[in-house]
Each structure stands twice: as C-alpha cells, then as structure tokens.
Specification:
With 143 residues, this protein is of the alpha+beta class. The chain has helices at residues 5-12, 60-73, 78-82, 86-92, 101-121, and strands at 25-31, 36-45, 48-57.
C-alpha cells in the first residue's frame, strides 16, 4: 500500500520536533524489536497543553504518527489529550498500512506516558486513561 499524502507530508515536514528543556511531562515508549522509539515532551499550563515536542527514532510511519499526534493535542486540555486514540491518529493521516498501525499505537502511548509523568511529578494519582497496555504493540518482524 502506498502512503497517503498526509503521511508523506508529516514524514517530510514533521511538526513539533525537538525537546522542551522545562517540560512538565516526558514520556518515552518504544519497542527495541521494531526499533521505533518515541519521546514526547509536554508543557502544561492550567491544565492546557501549551507546547509539545517529540523525538522519534524509527520509520517514516513512526515519525508521521508522532508529528500528527502532537498536532492533535497541542492547545488541548489534558482531558481532551487523554481521549487521543491510535485510530484517530491513523485516520487524521488518511490511514496507515496495516503493518504500520503499531506506529499509531506507539504515538498514543507516548502521549499517555508523558501525561502520566506529568501527574507523577505533581504527586497526583495517575488517571486510568494514562495506563498503557503492556502488551507488545509490535508485530514481530514487521517493524
């Protein structure tokens, strides 16, 4: 399957790349088997994600899903960001090949890991929506 124009655009011109020195939450997820590793940095003020950056080591789909996920949560409230799903990320990119869907799962998990870190740093209980399913999101050999 060919990649959509949106996937190619976010791969060739990723949004929000980099890191935030004074991040309020940082989440890293990855699968050494696939080789895709995503790190998301959040700057949160009054419950709103003011800024978000990411660093991704991985394939084009991993970079594109990271870029799209950060675009989808920037300026949103924490509660809105908690509702981000991998399906929504893939849909926003006009679809992903089936064997690359795990990249959108990683993007969702990276956002949730960063939000969990935000709560932990504040000494607050981590909401259940931040819990990441520890199941292996990488179909072996298809990374």
């Amino acid at each position: 399957m060919m990649y959509s124009e949106k996937v190619m655009d976010h791969f060739n011109h990723p949004r929000n790349v980099g890191e935030l020195e004074d991040a309020d939450g940082v989440g890293q997820v990855g699968n050494p088997v696939c080789g895709d590793i995503m790190k998301v940095y959040l700057k949160i003020t009054d419950g709103v994600i003011e800024d978000v950056k990411f660093k991704t080591f991985g394939c084009g789909s991993a970079i594109a899903t990271s870029s799209m996920a950060t675009e989808m949560i920037k300026g949103k409230t924490i509660q809105e960001a908690l509702t981000l799903t991998n399906a929504a990320v893939a849909e926003a990119l006009d679809g992903l090949p089936a064997h690359k869907m795990h990249c959108s799962v990683l993007a969702e998990e990276a956002v949730k890991a960063a939000l969990a870190d935000y709560y932990t740093r504040r000494g607050e209980p981590v909401p259940p929506e931040c819990q990441i399913d520890d199941a292996d999101s990488c179909p072996l050999g298809q990374g």
